[in-house]
Amino acid sequence: xxxxxxxxxxxxxxxxxxxxxxxxxxxxxxxxxxxxxxxxxxxxxxxxxxxxxxxxxxxxxxxxxxxxxxxxxxxxxxxxxxxxxxxxxxxxxxxxxxxxxxxxxxxxxxxxxxxxxxxxxxxxxxxxxxxxxxxxxxxxxxxxxxxxxxxxxxxxxxxxxxxxxxxxxxxxxxxxxxxxxxxxxxxxxxxxxxxxxxxxxxxxxxxxxxxxxxxxxxxxxxxxxxxxxxxxxxxxxxxxxxxxxxxxxxxxxxxxxxxxxxxxxxxxxxxxxxxxxxxxxxxxxxxxxxxxxxxxxxxxxxxxxxxxxxxxxxxxxxxxxxxxxxxxxxxxxxxxxxxxxxxxxxxxxxxxxxxxxxxxxxxxxxxxxxxxxxxxxxxxxxxxxxxxxxxxxxxxxxxxxxxxxxxxxxxxxxxxxxxxxxxxxxxxxxxxxxxxxxxxxxxxxxxxxxxxxxxxxxxxxxxxxxxxxxxxxxxxxxxxxxxxxxxxxx
Length: 490
Hints:
Number of helices: 10
Number of strands: 7
Mean pLDDT: 75
Helix content: 55-70%
Strand order of the largest sheet: 6-5-7
């Protein structure tokens, strides 16, 4: 009886684990590794099964070739005598049938073995071809990926170089623009200096002409109202001419002005001449205070900058100024609380009107200095940092650079802010040193900036607590004002 064997499944179909088409799926970096592994495993299993079939056939062939023990040695006559002729005929037929079956089994076994060898060779060749194809395809895909990566790398390098050149060109353009602006500022400064010098010389000439035009009574050289007259021999202290006021004259541009003082309508204030300029005395009093206050604020600002940078490094998503600095009142307390320089400036202002510091209310004067500090330093700094936070967009490295730049700029302006605060404290202190009913005159600084209040207030005399035509009780009304009030004899 012949044994039949099923042909091996070498195309991967019917196993339920792969694609029935016999082809592999292609993924992003080549053939699907899992499907390739499953196909090779199936082929290996089939080869093992064929080897087992071959071994089984060889065993059956060996059994079929084994000789029939005893029957070949018994002659027909003896066998017929032993079992009978009919049985002997049956045995003879069985022997012939066995020989034929054996022959057929041998032939069939030879055919099966040959088919098994052929099938094994075909499977082996198919596996080798498939392995070679996979290797070649994988190598090609790897080379393609490498080439693509190299091309992309070159593109990135090219883009980086172009961006670098663009940034450098933009920085060069900004640098050139900044240089042009600096040159323009320098030219503007020079023009302003020349204009100020021309104005100063014109004012000196005007003062000299006015001094020559003032009538002097040879019999009584003492001026009206007890104001000291200038010493012609003292060229360094020529004095500042504040104006001539006639109680019977109509004051221009302000009929209700306080220039016409009640109780002094018959008095004439001719000239106020000081042995030393009040602005010079103010400068001598405030210069060391300005230097000390600038150093004090610079130390505070350095510590504050370090705290802000530390807060930037700790923060993961900075969104408001409140995460960097305290509220406005607490912030100004860092710079304006218990400052000896401000108190000294107030005392100097009180002394400038001939009063003593005892019993004088400093509350308003301190508030004035604090307001100037808030308006000129604290609020602009906080607004700048708020813009910096918005511009950086949460980038901590960019925000840190902006913070350093902002504080560097503000530290360069500290001396100017200290000057503004102390000048304001000096002016407010001078007003605090005046008693009710005291006569004061608004005196512009000849070397200071031209403020808008000079045109309305210069030379105007009032009695405390009246206000000057501009509505202010004392200068400075703005940051650019360096005017003073001077007390006049009653």
